[in-house]
Specification:
The complex is a heterotrimer of chains A (120), B (491) and C (485). Chain A is an all-alpha fold and 120 residues long. Chain A contains 4 helices and no strands. In chain C, helix 5 packs parallel to helix 10, helix 10 packs antiparallel against helix 14 and helix 12 runs antiparallel to helix 13. Classes of the chains: A mainly alpha (120), B mainly alpha (491), C mainly alpha (485).
């Protein structure tokens, strides 16, 4: 299996770090969820990159076509599920953010901390 | 029919969850939830009996045989954990979120049941599946449902706790996913047994190390291993008490099961403890969890938070048992999984009883509650004694194995540490007992016991924790068989 | 009824009594009737076992095996029988006394009090009947927890603080040291069953043995060996009946009894003697005897003085066991009974004085003997027994202890025992002297005894001290199999 060069992994790692950075450094809950999404997407790209074979085609058996080089279909299929999981997480996360906004009137973490301290 | 039991175990709660949303009427949903949980409990007991008699069961999902298809695999260990999860669920599910203590408008309770059923289905799925990616999917199903459940707490802080839980849980889940990716990249398989056979060939590659690191850290986040436990205290403290009981009794336990599976079945003792020397990391972390958790519990002024920190401490015992990598250590860890599920579940339910009556879990509001709610507090005391590990309670059985493991390993300092931490448990349990029985409430003392619908399940769990302190054939007996299996010294 | 069933019955009767009296807690008279009935039935059952055990039978039963090698099992042997007789027998006069005391004092939460009292008797009998270390440990802890509500009964800040010390010391020692000793013993010997001649011989070298003995001696905190004696004075915040039965009899004797059991059936006298394992324990016990006696001399609070006296007297029993000679063990065993009767009387008297005159200090007792002659006479009799004067029971146990010291060629402990007798005279007799011979500090006041329900039991136990002197041959015959080779 030939890999599509190593640069893609560096790109994925960079994307992942950006995601984590946003997640940790931003006070805004919605931005945190964006960070989380970046983080997850980088993993999805990682799977796809692992499965990709240079010059490979879709893994469809064609009668009489002989041996064709095709990309590994399994990781792609797995990522369909992972994307569903990611979407659900985003939905729940945003739902919580909406509820927090309704309860506190803010989605800024430092503001929330202040409100919680003021109300023991 | 009976050969399909493994899959029914998961499918029943999974299908009942959307069904609950269609039914909507509370009484009917409650019955449905109970029926689903009871059915899966009955199935898991049947599976355990069958596994003990005839050995492991392999069930090819949809008729696709492993390693290509997804395999459901039931052995002593997974059947044991299935029983714990579905048993606790069968006791807790019919309760609903309990009176008070939740922010749900009445008439919307079917959402609660649906989430709880989903969480149960996810946890059972993680336990029963023999496919690594399937583990991830079920783990996320249960986690998603748990975030929702935590967010239902009546205090608005519950929302923030749920959010933090979501963020940490997702990081954990994604780490698991990365780990799976590395493992797959190296071996080309996702089946756990297959993986275990192929890993030794590639064990020296650094990708292998990365796979193990991501998997174990990800699972540890879900398990709340010190210092990855930050999400746990708030989540347990602000969730509706019944949810806290459910999560404390099942979610972390399944994560522990997963960790044990990965370490012992997939990667192998020789690799994890021999080459990587995980013991050197896990011993101090476990001890730190035990002490930091207990010390934090001592300082709490809210009973639920106190119990939550106590959970951090008790999870330390679990991982400590694992880090011995010996028969008695692992037995101790696994039996503690069982015992602590009962004890902590019962304790959170006792809190639910008090919250249902007085609406508060603040320690200050518990003055004199021992006289107002004698049965509830008797349950709390019995559960508290279990946390301490007094002989005659289930907690003692776990401690006995752990201390024995420490002495066998020639590490008397660990034995002393375990015993010393029991004394810290005395301190935090006794703060509650003293307040409940011997502090003057300064008001009228009318007897107001919790409704039987809450008190009954509380005593079922606490009673079980006392029963399994004396009759241990089905707790320690099965746990030691499971430990022997994991270590490859038994069937 | 078979003897095995009787053992079970004696164990559950007090617990059933606790349940029954909680159910009828609303009617005090009925509640107290239940208490007394449970007491009589329990004592009757235990006493009924005497002929069997004296005849060499060892009735008992195995309830279940908790873990492999960890059985919940009961077996009655002579020492256990003696302890069970003392605990259940003295429960009856204490119940009578409690009724008078609790009503005289107008205490609240009396139902909880009586229920916990009955439970702790159940736990004490469990300790007495235990056939192995695990069962003993289980009931030992149960005894701690069931007596805690009694210590903190009044719920005042002092009571709560006392309760914390009580629970803290007892649990720290038992969980931190005793449990460790248990696991270690199980690993060395492969069993925890009490066996005549011991289970450790051949499995442990003398150094390990000495270390283990240390874990046991200090781990059994109820034996109040210094420096783990603090809980005993702290527990004196409890109502007088609790101090009397529990902290002069059931709890503290559970401690020394357990230690004697360990010495006899886990280590074995031969193993101890040959390895010179217990020499340090003799010195530790002697130090406790002398220091506690000196401290008792300086206490003004009567109950605290008695508490320190108890610490010293318990160490006699520990010393007897540590000597590992026939005389030492017999003397120690007898001292369980003789000291129990003596000390319970003294605590009863202290409580009676508190109820009748609200005096708790020795310095306030001038001339009290004229107002409470019966009580103070009983106090005097019991003091003589504790000091070891004939014709009181205490004389015999001291005699055998002295014999045991001579037998083991440990002459220095002869001196310790003699000196401590003088010291005990020094802290007990001044109380009697002041009460009868000093001029009353406050004028007036005729006869003013405590309620009859208080005075009758203390008179009864005081006479018991006298009776024990003549019962000594029977005691000797009962305990002699312990040291027979």
């Amino acid at each position: 299996m030939t890999l599509a060069g190593h640069w893609i992994y560096w790109a994925i790692v960079a994307l992942m770090m950006v995601g984590l950075y946003v997640l940790i450094a931003r006070e805004n809950l919605v931005k945190k969820i964006m960070g989380l999404n970046l983080f997850q997407v980088s993993v999805i790209l990682f799977y796809v990159a692992v499965a990709k074979v240079r010059g490979g085609t879709a893994p469809i058996l064609v009668e009489g076509a002989g041996d064709v080089v095709y990309s590994n279909p399994l990781p792609h299929v797995l990522m369909l599920t992972a994307i569903v999981v990611g979407v659900s997480l985003t939905a729940v996360g945003l739902g919580l953010a909406v509820r927090i906004r309704a309860a506190y009137g803010s989605v800024e973490e430092d503001e929330l901390d202040r409100l919680d301290e003021a109300d023991p | 029919m009976s050969e399909h039991l493994p899959v029914l175990q998961v499918v029943i709660p999974l299908l009942c969850a959307p069904l609950a949303l269609l039914v909507r009427r509370e009484a009917a949903v409650r019955t449905l939830a109970f029926a689903a949980a009871a059915a899966s409990f009955a199935i898991s007991v049947a599976l355990l009996v069958s596994v003990l008699a005839d050995g492991p069961i392999s069930y090819p999902l949809g008729g696709w045989y492993p390693p290509l298809g997804i395999e459901y695999r039931v052995d002593t260990l997974s059947a044991f954990v299935l029983c714990v999860v579905s048993g606790v669920a069968a006791v807790l599910l019919p309760l609903g979120p309990g009176r008070g203590g939740h922010g749900l408008p009445s008439g919307r309770l079917h959402w609660f049941y649906a989430a709880l059923l989903l969480a149960q289905a996810g946890l059972l799925g993680v336990t029963i599946t023999g496919d690594l990616f399937n583990v991830f999917v079920f783990l996320e199903i249960s986690s998603l449902a748990s975030y929702v459940l935590v967010g239902l707490g009546s205090d608005r802080r519950a929302l923030r706790a749920a959010f933090t839980y979501l963020v940490m849980g997702t990081i954990g889940g994604t780490f698991v996913l990365i780990g799976i990716g590395f493992a797959y990249q190296m071996t080309g398989t996702l089946n756990l047994d297959d993986l275990a056979q192929r890993l030794p060939e590639v064990r020296h590659k650094s990708t292998m190390l990365a796979a193990f690191a991501f998997l174990s850290v990800g699972v540890s986040l879900k398990l709340a291993v010190f210092p990855l436990h930050q999400w746990l205290p708030n989540a347990y403290a602000y969730a509706p008490p019944v949810v806290s009981a459910f999560l404390a009794a099942t979610a972390t336990k399944v994560a522990y099961y997963l960790l044990a599976r990965l370490v012992f079945t997939v990667f192998g003792v020789a690799y994890v403890f021999g080459e990587l020397g995980l013991g050197w990391l896990l011993f101090p972390l476990s001890l730190a969890a035990i002490f930091a958790g207990a010390l934090a519990a001592i300082r709490q002024t809210d009973v639920k938070k106190l119990l939550a920190y106590s959970s951090v401490s008790q999870i330390g015992y679990l991982t400590l048992g694992l880090s011995f990598a010996s028969l008695s250590g692992l037995t101790g860890g696994l039996v503690h999984l069982f015992n602590h599920a009962l004890t902590k579940g019962g304790l959170f339910l006792a809190v639910a009883c008090v919250v249902a009556r007085s609406g508060s879990s603040r320690l200050d509001d518990w003055r004199g509650i021992g006289r107002r709610m004698p049965w509830t507090m008797a349950a709390f005391v019995a559960g508290g004694l279990g946390l301490i590990g007094v002989p005659g309670t289930a907690g003692f059985v776990s401690k006995w194995y752990l201390v024995q493991a420490a002495l066998e390993a020639g590490r008397a300092e660990l034995a002393l540490g375990i015993l010393a931490s029991s004394l810290l448990a005395v301190v935090y349990v006794w703060r509650v007992v003293e307040t409940a029985y011997f502090r003057d409430p300064g008001g009228p003392e009318t007897r107001a016991e919790a409704p039987l619908s809450l008190l009954g399940p509380t005593w079922v769990l606490i009673g079980a924790s006392l029963y399994f302190g004396v009759f241990t054939e089905w707790s320690a007996g099965v746990a030691s068989k499971a430990a022997a299996m994991l270590l490859g010294v038994g069937p | 009824m078979s003897a095995d069933a009787a053992v079970l019955l004696a164990l559950v009767l007090p617990a059933v009594g606790a349940l029954g009296l909680s159910l009828v807690g609303r009617w005090p008279n009925l509640r107290e009737t239940v208490t007394l009935l449970a007491g009589l039935a329990t004592f009757g059952t235990v006493a009924g076992l005497v002929p069997e055990v004296a005849g060499g039978a060892r009735p008992g039963f195995r309830a279940t095996e908790v873990l492999p090698g960890l059985e919940l099992e009961f077996e009655l042997e002579p020492l256990g029988l003696l302890y069970a007789l003392v605990a259940s027998g003295l429960w009856i006069p204490t119940s009578v006394y409690s009724i008078g005391y609790m009503r005289g004092h107008g205490e609240s939460n009396q139902t909880r009090f009586f229920a916990c009292f009955a439970l702790s008797i159940s736990a004490a009998l469990g300790v007495a009947f235990a056939a192995n270390l695990f069962t003993l440990f289980l009931f030992y802890e149960l005894l701690t927890f069931s007596t805690y509500p009694l210590v903190t009964h009044r719920g005042t800040p002092e009571a709560l603080a006392g309760g914390r010390v009580y629970l803290g010391v007892l649990l720290t020692t038992s969980v931190g040291l005793l449990l460790l000793a248990l696991v270690w013993t199980a690993q060395l010997a492969g069993t925890l069953s009490f066996t005549q001649g011991g289970i450790l011989a051949g499995h442990a070298d003398p150094l390990t043995g000495g270390l283990l003995l240390g874990l046991f001696a200090f781990g059994i905190g109820k034996a109040a060996l210094m420096p783990f004696h603090r809980w005993l004075p702290a527990a004196m915040v409890a109502p007088a009946p609790v101090s009397a039965l529990l902290h002069a009899v059931a709890v503290v004797k559970a401690g020394v009894f357990s230690l004697l059991k360990v010495i006899l059936y886990v280590f074995g006298l031969d193993f101890l003697r040959e390895g010179q394992i217990s020499l340090w324990l003799m010195y530790a016990a002697s130090a406790t005897i002398l220091i506690a006696s000196l401290v008792a001399l300086r206490q003004d609070n009567l109950k605290r003085r008695l508490a320190y006296s108890t610490v010293a007297q318990l160490a006699y029993i520990v010393l007897g066991g540590a000597l590992a000679t026939a005389g030492g063990v017999l003397g120690g065993g007898m001292h369980i009974a003789t000291h129990a009767l003596g000390k319970i009387t003294l605590f009863f008297c202290a409580g009676a004085i508190d109820v009748a005159l609200h005096k708790t200090r020795v310095s306030e007792l001038d001339g009290v003997g004229r107002r409470m002659p019966f009580t103070l006479a009983a106090f005097a009799l019991a003091s003589f027994s504790i000091i070891g004067l004939p014709p009181f029971g205490g004389a015999w146990s001291k005699w055998y202890l002295l014999l045991g010291a001579a037998e083991g060629h440990q002459l220095v402990f002869l001196g310790v025992l003699t000196l401590s007798s003088l010291l005990s005279a020094g802290y007990l007799l001044p109380v009697v002297g002041r009460a009868f011979f000093a001029a009353p500090s406050e004028p007036g006041g005729g006869l003013r005894e405590a309620p009859a329900l208080c005075v009758a039991p203390l008179g009864f136990t005081a006479l018991g001290c006298l009776a024990l002197f003549f019962l000594a041959p029977a005691l000797y015959a009962l305990l002699e199999p312990l040291v027979r080779n």
